[in-house]
Amino acid sequence: MEIALLGGTGDIGEGLALRWARDTDHTVVVGSRDSEKATHRADDYRTLLDERGVEHDVIGVDNETATERADVVVLSVPPEYAVSTVETVSNGLTSDDVLVSPAVSMDRDGAGFHATPPEDGSVAQAVAGAAPDVPVVGAFQNLAAGALSDLDTELRTDTVVTGDDPEATALVRSLAEEIDGLRALDGGPLAVTALVESVTPLLINLAMNNEGMHDLGVRFQ
Ligand SMILES: NC(=O)c1ccc[n+]([C@@H]2O[C@H](COP(=O)([O-])OP(=O)(O)OC[C@H]3O[C@@H](n4cnc5c(N)ncnc54)[C@H](OP(=O)(O)O)[C@@H]3O)[C@@H](O)[C@H]2O)c1
Q1: How far apart are CA 80 and CA 104, in angstroms?
Q2: pLDDT one-digit tens code per residue, 93-136
Q3: Containing structural domain, residue 125
Q4: Which of 14, 155, 168, 174 is most solvent-facing, going by the fewest CB within 10 Å?
Q5: Is 127 within the bounds of a domain?
Q6: Counted domains in the chain
Q7: Where residue 10 sits, what CATH number does that domain have?
Q8: For ligand 1, mutation pick of 11, 41, 75, 106 (most atoms within 8 Å of CB)
Q9: Whole-Å CA distances, 113 to 44, 46, 109, 209
Q10: How confident is the model at residue 45 (pLDDT cuts 50, 70, 90)?
Q11: CB burial of residue 35 (10 Å; 0-12, 13-18, 19+)
Q12: Alpha helices, H only, 3-96
């Protein structure tokens, strides 16, 4: 399977790319608006994996090519650009693809971080509105990029997966669970994704307010 990370040059993209490349046999396609940047970042990821003696399959291409190639497309871009990125790559999307939204819209004031969901209810629902023919799944919103990117960190974390297409949701849950230490829970339909997205500002506030806590995740038990 080919997994594309649009904006895979950034923080969460790096973490997911390294984990999927290390823990699975899937082809990881690092996407960028700039194909040269994608190539360089893919080189960086391959070097890190080579240093660990890990076999991997990582390539870097522009976002449009990444979308055309891949079966699963993760929108690892800032939330305010999730919809415009979908519009940019829409020619390469088919109803057989799965779009994954890890995005969290949030703002910070004197009290800390707050969720600032778009009018659609959640970023994932806004993405679904921009790609009505493609199954959209919410996942990975509560993972800390720092923990994912540090391959010495042993994960013991959950990700809540939401979506309206049972096959697409099951596929993303299984891809998530192929990452060592990550458990994927069925969170219900896309309509409740705001609940999941709103946990991330809570995690960041907890990390800021409590000494020694950083890169927090959630484990439900
Ligand atoms: N960071 C985390 O710990 C974390 C955790 C969970 C979820 N998330 C979510 O994951 C998404 C990405 O977060 P991040 O921290 O990885 O973001 P980031 O590092 O700030 O950006 C990711 C990539 O987005 C691309 N990008 C920047 N501006 C863009 C624009 N105007 N249009 C299209 N693409 C643009 C850039 O790639 P190119 O320049 O190569 O195109 C950049 O490398 C966000 O929605 C965030 O809410 C992040």
Answers
A1: 9
A2: 999 999 999 999 999 999 999 999 999 999 999 999 999 999 99
A3: 2-209
A4: 174
A5: yes
A6: 1
A7: 3.40.50.720
A8: 11
A9: 32, 34, 7, 11
A10: very high
A11: middle
A12: 11-23, 35-51, 63-69, 82-89
Distance 103 CA to ligand 1 centre (A): 8
Determine the pLDDT at residue 115: 97
Picking from 146, 203, 124, the residue whose alpha carbon sits closest to that of residue 16 is: 146
Report which ligand 1 atom has the smallest distance to the Cα of 106.
Answer: 47
pLDDT single digits (tens) 51-91: 999 999 999 999 999 999 999 999 999 999 999 999 999 99
For residue 218, being part of any structural domain is answered with no
**Residue 195 CA, distance from chain mean position:** 17
Ligand 1 contact via 145 beta carbon (within 6 Å): yes
Please indicate, yes or no, if residue 221 is contained in any of the structural domains.
no
